[in-house]
Request: fold
Amino acid sequence: MIAPSVLSFDHSDLATPVKELLNAGAGVIHLDVMDGQFVPPITIGDGVAKGLRRLGDFTLEAHLMTLTPEAHFEAFAKAGCNRIIFHSEATSHAHRLTQTLHSMGVQAGVAVNPATPVAMVEEIVDILDEVLVMTVNPGWGGQTFISEALHKVKRLRSLRSDLIIEVDGGIDEKTLPVAREAGANLFVVGSRLANGKSIAEAYNTLAALCG
Ligand code: DX5
Ligand code: ZN
Reply:
């Protein structure tokens, strides 16, 4: 499936593109939450999640690019996020944080930066709902896909056939099939949706490649 990221849209009007994506058939919306500490930019908070939640029945996932991610779990869960993804580099306690999310009734995902090995999540792969493999360095949309990250997707897929393996960064018509071949089954798409002829056209083109 495609997980459209709203990062590259006009932040003063995120409802318009999200409605268009939902009408086009999107079942997941990906929120890139940056705190100006874990990564340099500051983006959106739980208020935006709450507003977008009202637009329909879809999986709302928050990708927390923040320090102390657990400090934000409750706010994003209360805002209606179905899945919360925190970075393995931002905590020494990924197991406990996964348990915390599950106790809130929220799916748990752990993200790994390009420089982070799969070993960082291997011991908890059985209790996770998702692993997000960053295929760019987090912080900005529109960067070039780092294909070296794909061996981590392959390794994760060999560990668990039913895991959600999400790839994030630089996904377009060329890179999506390569990531899919490696074993990814959820594809974050940001700038490619904002830069196409229309959002729906770009969404449909990429969704067709998911199989
Ligand atoms: C990067 C974010 C991504 C970003 C992807 O830090 O995690 O979700 O929006 O954007 P594109 O698709 O433009 O690489
Ligand atoms: Zn993201």
